[in-house]
Amino acid sequence: MAHWNGWKWVLFILIGLVVLPACRGGEQADNGELQVGDFDYAAGNRDFQVALNGVVLQVNDVEVLAGDVDIGSGYLYVVPRINVTNNGENPVGATEFSLVDEYLNQYQSWQTSVSFAETLAGMPAVINRGEAVAGDHVFIVPAAALQANLKVRWESSDYRSRIEISLGNLAVAP
Hints:
This protein has one helix and twelve strands, in the order H-E-E-E-E-E-E-E-E-E-E-E-E. It is mainly beta. Strand 11 and strand 12 (about 160-165) form a beta hairpin.
């Protein structure tokens, strides 16, 4: 029986060596970047406000436009109007917004580099504390992404926060 007790301790120590490193949360990656687990997170659906750490986002309108020669065949423009209210301590930057699909493909905004830029309600580069604005972002996505649960994502390392707003299934405007 004493022999079995010795093995229990060895097994206990081995399990501890495997499990404890896996339980370390909130640490930085080897490259110094913050990991998703280090961020506060909130999510919601279109037409509803989502608030986190003093920042309130809402997406009511989403326009889907057919592509043109500038982006090539098979791609479309997705243009959500994003309402931002900043009651937090830090500015909110327009570059902190992206569009992601269920396969974790991420699309960056092309706010001013499109042929129809003059028709957009531009998002200011920075939304300061106490400001509330609404602005359009333009994302170029493959047509298949319209049925891939697209979400507007705001992610800020200053706030250590991420908000995702689901847009639902989308279709090209007639």
